[in-house]
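Bump. Still looking for Low molecular weight phosphotyrosine protein phosphatase structure tokens.
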Amino acid sequence: LVSIGNICRSPIAEAVFRKLVTDEKLENKWRTDSAAVSDWNVGRFPDSRALSCLRNHGIETAHKARQITKEDFQTFDHILCMDESNLRDLNRKSNQVKDCKAKIELLGTYDPQKQLIIEDPYYGNEKDFETVYEQCLRCCKAFLEKSH
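Sorry for the wait, here they are.
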């Protein structure tokens, strides 16, 4: 799960997906992680508003931001991202990777409410983080149902 800085949207999506997989007792079938297309926040914990939003839904995460690597394109089956800018960057990066096996697509592709883009809530407020959470939950549920 990929976003620009890996401190708002993608760690929320990662934590949501991991909880869904755990609740369905499918942990042994999935390796879940998130990353950034940029190196801006490498090593940082998620935004405090993202952590607060997750805690409000009973989800904890110890994720630290990292940048996507060539190995990610070679080892993951799916790389799901948040917006068109992420998609462009990932497609460009994947073209430089030999043996890219990951299918790269927008997480919003799976949204039953057809909201394709998950907007960055960084410059918004708690309500914007809640919107991201709800979108990620819908999309991750639909993706998981389609994938197993």
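The chain has one domain: 2-147.

Edit: fixed formatting.
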